[in-house]
Amino acid sequence: MYFSKAHGGIKAELIESPATSVFDAAKLPYSVRQDWSDLTPIPQHEPGFAPLCPIMYSNEYRDAMDYFRALVQAGEHSKRGLELTEHLINLNPAHYSVWQYRWETLLELNSPLEEELEWSDEVVRRFIKNYQGWHHRRLLITKLRNPKSELSFISAALKQDSKNYHTWAYRQWLLAEFNLPELWAGELGYVEELLDEDFRNNSAWHHRYFLVFGSGVRQGEEDREAIIRRELTFTKQKIAIAPNNPSAWNYLRGVLEHGRLPFSNERLFVELYVVSKEPSDPLVPRSTLSEAADDVVDLDNPGPSAQAELPVPLAIEFLGDIAEEEGDKEKAIGVGIYTQYLDKIT
């Protein structure tokens, strides 16, 4: 099927094919549909206006938007309006005004929001990086007040894209908005599963910080000193597995800062990752480090594996932070220079 201009208008012509034997009227432009003939389309620009750099919209999108403007101007909220917004969202899921009109129309028509949520399932999956789709879902769940199945939906979306900002923001909103114990119950375990799959998933690390330190104190976590010790142990274990993972080192900083603990508390641990395997390395001589770094058997300070490439630039950078914290600017500058050197050769 194709469209051609004839006598100044638009004529729809059907080309028969094995897959197309019946004309689908829904694919016609709105300008030739009888059920839209009561509206006068409103173009984006006034006649005679010639924009310097016009956006090259498709004819399909331009036609649909012209009728959307007419619909909004008429103040109409109708079933056909919902159908038009669905069409436009499929063409341009980032159009805020279309989403807003759809939401207002749903409320005006008292439409069943459960059905809209089912429709949202597919739309969000298709356009997972689009903020408007997630915001629309937030409006629906806020109105329905039934969040219990949402975590499984979000988890499925994170399997599709484990680092998508909008998905994580929606998950954190859901937890904070409803604040139900059953929603929070499995979150820490869920994050640990994600980090076991990919310990470099910075989004999962961020969510862990939100759960532990950024969302209040839940039952069983009143002993904050014990929580901080747990988080330090967890983080150092992850660093031992992957010493060059910046997410874990940043989380270590975050835990110490939240607990108002000096970075120097972790000096012995950090030095385990700074000692070069080359005894003659003039840039990181063992004599400058704590004696404990030579031979440590300390469950609280797990060392790097035999396969780890030492020294670890991120650990040296952490030592620089310790030096700066202690006011040793000369050492901090020297550590910074060496870190830059390692970044160039690794």
UniProtKB/TrEMBL annotation:
Molecular-function GO terms, alphabetical: CAAX-protein geranylgeranyltransferase activity; protein farnesyltransferase activity
Enzyme Commission number(s): 2.5.1.58, 2.5.1.59
Cofactor(s) the protein needs: Mg(2+)
Key words of the record: Magnesium, Prenyltransferase, Repeat, Transferase
Highest taxon, organism lineage: Eukaryota
Keyword hit for Cell division: no
Keyword Transmembrane: no
GO CC terms: CAAX-protein geranylgeranyltransferase complex; protein farnesyltransferase complex
InterPro entries (alphabetical): Prenyl_trans_a
Family designation: Belongs to the protein prenyltransferase subunit alpha family.
Protein name: Protein farnesyltransferase/geranylgeranyltransferase type-1 subunit alpha
